Amino acid sequence: MPSVDQPQPIAADELPAVLVDGVSKHFSLPADRVQTLKERALHPIRSRERNSFTALDDVAFHVEKGEFFGLVGRNGSGKSTLLKCIAGIYSADSGEIYHDGTLTSFIELGVGFNPELPAFDNVLLNATLLGLDTEAARSSFEEVMDFAELWEFENLKLKNYSSGMYVRLAFSVMLQVDADILLIDEVLAVGDAAFQQKCFDQFNRMRDEGKTIVFVTHGMDAVRRFCDRAVLLDRGRVVAIGDAEEISERYLELNFVAPDSDAMTFDSAVGKATLSDCWVADSSGQRVDSLNQGERLAVHAEVTFEQPVTDPWVDIQFRDENDRLLMVSSTQPNAYGPGPAPSGDFATGETAHYVAEFDCIFAAGHYSVSISSGPDASYSRYFRRTDAVSVDVEGSAVSGATVVLPTDWHVEKAVPTANAGEPQ
Asked: Quick check: helix, strand or coil at residue 389?
C-alpha cells in the first residue's frame, strides 16, 4: 500500500506571535433608551427593539515574534475592540485568534486601584490582578515607586493623587509584568515630558528584549518611532497593512477625507505612473539645493503616465532632519485644502508638470520632500517617493521653532481713557 505524505508540523519558531483570522464582532444596541419606568410601561415593545452594530468586519493580520505592531484608526474604527478580542475580554462572533506565548494586556491603566488605599496596597492589588504572585508584587514596590517618582506621596490615599500621579503609578506597575506578548492601549500620554521620555526608554528596552508588542495609538510620531509595521482600521475593516511610515501617512490621509467621501479607496500603489523628475526652484525659477528663509520657493514634479488617466493627483510632504512631518499639500480637493482645478486628461506616455509654490517659512535646517501620485477620487497610489528631493534653508532667525511665520507688528503709545485711574 503506497504511503501517504503526512503534513509536517510547523516549527515553534516559525509561528507568528499573534494571528487574527477573519475576526468579526457585533454589538446589540437598544434602538431607544428608556429613561423611566413609566416609559417602559407605556412602550413595552419599543423598549425591546435593538439595533446591530458591527465593530469588526472580517479583520485578518498576523504579528511576528519580537515585532512592535501598531493598531491605528480614527475613533470608532474598532481598535480597542480588537485589542480586547485578542486579550480574551471579548469573544469574537466569527473568525479565530491565536497567540503563541504568554500574553498580558494593558488596556486601562489602574484597573483595580482603590482610591481609599495608599500606594503600597494599590501596587500589591494591581500587580496581582496583572498576574504577579503576592511575593513578586511585594518585592516590586520599591522599583515601582522609584520609576513613578512618588515616594513623597507613599502614604497618601489615591483619591488625593492628581490624574498624572495616578497614571504614573499605574504605568510603573504595568512595567513589572513579564510576558511574551504585551497588548497596550494608549498609555504613552502619561506624566510630564521627563516621565514620558522614561516611558519611551522602557519601550525601547522591551523591544530590544524581543517582546512582542501590539500597540493602539492615535500618535503617528509614536507609530513611526516604535512600530515595525501597523494596520489601519476604519469602520471595523482593514484599510491597509504595511510599514509604520506608510500606515502613518495613510492615517493622516484618512482623517482629512470629507465625511461624505465613501467612494474613496485606499488600495496599495497601482503602478500606472512614474516620477520622471523632481526639483526645488527659487523665486527666479532656478533649480536650487538651498535658499533663504522667507524666500518664495516652488516644488516641481514631473509625472509620466503608463496608460490614459483623468485628473491624477499629486501631493508633497516636507519633513525635517528628525523626520517630523511639517507640511502636507495636495491637488486633491478636501484632502489638505480646496485643491486646484482638475489636472485634465493625459494619454499613455504623456507627462504632467505639477508645481507647488509657497513662501519658505521653515527655520534654518535641512528638509526632505516626499512625492506621491494617484488616480482621481481615490487614495490609491501610482507611486510614493520618499526623499524625492531635499533642500537646505539658510537664515539668521533663531527661535527654536520649526517654522518662522512672517508677522506684522504694530507698536504705539496707548491713549489713556478719560477716567483712567479714578475709583469706580
From this structure: strand
User: Taking a C-beta distance cutoff of 8 angstroms, is the pair 153, 169 a contact?
Assistant: no
How far does CA 424 lie from the centroid of its chain? 55
Name the H helices within 33-118: 37-42, 79-87
Residue 205, all three cell numbers: 528596552
- H-only helix segments in 236-388: 244-255
Nearest 5°: the CA angle 314, 247, 369 is 40
Render pLDDT for 71-95 as a digit per residue (tens, 0 to 9).
998 888 889 899 999 988 899 999 9
Q: Give the pLDDT confidence of 244-295 residue by residue, as tens digits.
A: 888 888 887 777 544 444 433 444 445 688 888 999 999 899 999 999 888 9
Question: Where in the chain are the domains?
Answer: 273-394
CATH H-level, domain 273-394: superfamily: abc- transporter (atp binding component) like domain (2.70.50.60)
Give residue for cell 454589538. Answer: 27
For the chain, how far is it from start to end, CA to CA, in angstroms? 112
Instruction: Tell me if residue 106 falls in helix, strand or coil.
Output: strand
Residue with cell 423611566: 36
For residue 225, give the H/E element and its range: helix 220-226
Q: What is the C-alpha separation between 219 and 189, in angstroms, rounded? A: 9
Give this prediction's pTM: 0.58
